[in-house]
Amino acid sequence: MGRNYDGIEDRLRAFIAEQPVFFVATAPLSGSGHVNLSPKGRAGSLRVLDERTLAFLDFGGSHAETIAHLRENGRITLMWCAFSGPPMVLRVHGHGEPVFRDDPRFADLVAGFGEADGPGLRAVILVAVQRVSDSCGFAVPLLDYRAERTLHAQYFGRRSDTDFAAYCEKVPTNGTSIDGLPALPLPLPPR
After folding, report:
1. Minimal CB count within 10 Å: which of 15, 43, 87, 174?
2. Tell me: the pLDDT tens digits for 161-173?
3. Which contacts (CB < 8 Å, 24+ apart) does range 140-143 have?
4. Which CATH homologous superfamily contains domain 3-175?
């Protein structure tokens, strides 16, 4: 049976730190809009700032649906599954906010991620935690983790920040979501 928590307590924080992948879900307000579910997994790109606040790095390379939905309504859910060890699924529901490069908070937030910061960074997603719950995870398969994929960092690492900004402007689903919502503000400010 699942349990609700007042915040991200130490045991849950340790569980989050052990998971190599997490999932982010957002949706527009429109019932005809597309729900978005994204896997995230670059090592070190998520931080639990305190019991009621999370932050993760938002890199380019795909659509900007998470950013668009958060700009419209702020609703976000993050989920972790135990693919090894004791079974568990953990969900954090909250209110998310994209912190863009030209926001005065951006530099301080990014600094806390150390080496996880890298080329292709569009924003930091800040999440105010509203609900934390777990469930059994009995049906989640056991999977063996092999290694981090480095393709994303390598691909964008070969390009300058100016090239990345041009890429963001060229890809239609960076500035506007698939449902036509404003996403990444363009032109992308330099770092």
Report:
1. 43
2. 999 999 999 999 9
3. 140/81, 140/82, 140/83, 140/87, 140/89, 141/83, 142/83, 142/84, 143/83, 143/84
4. Electron Transport, Fmn-binding Protein; Chain A (2.30.110.10)
